[in-house]
Fold:
Amino acid sequence: MIKNLKLKNLLLLCSVGVMLASCSSKKEGIQEYDRPALYWYNKMTKQIADYDLESADDTFTSLESEHRNSPLLPTSLIILANAHMEEEQYALANFYLDEYIKRYTISKEIDYVRFLKIKANFMGFTYQLRDQQLLDDTIADIKVFKTTYPQSPYIPLVDTIDSRIHMAKANLDKEIADLYKRLGKDKAAKIYEEKAKNTWDKPEDIKDVDVPFYRAIFE
Structure:
């Protein structure tokens, strides 16, 4: 009988434990709303510190939807962009950077944000023969940046990226020229050889693209 009583008590404790856990889970799952902007901002930064970027994205959505004119929004966009870049999620980083550029064109931080976009594209350059459009787009963005913000403190870094991007572009054109040569299409090969020379003075001196080398200045 004592054994049966102990068994009943144990089952009762287990049942209570399951009920408490269920209630706790439901409580945690309650959707939050109507909070101060600083609450959402602090929650977002904590989630980023905990490497929970998916939750941080959701929290930013709450901040944005409840406080569309909050001065914390531009800072939050930059923080999220940097956080996603750290995790090599360059598409998401670009999403937040594009949102910043669209909303805060006259911001004092706009040159920094446009630099981050160039950096994100540069860091996202992975496969030299697959990312031709990304190369061209980044080169175009660099030209605009250097013309628009000639006094920016980020110009030296942009110049470094510019040089390495052009080396990658010249190497790509050289690879295409070599491919056409192997196919016996000498005319096409000549066109790409000229493109390589126009991009870089001595493309023959460029070693095969090693992505970690090109990205090393940020790693």
Observations:
- Residues 1-29, 211-219 have pLDDT under 50 and may be disordered.
- The radius of gyration is 27 Å.
- The CA atoms of residues 77 and 96 lie 6 Å apart.
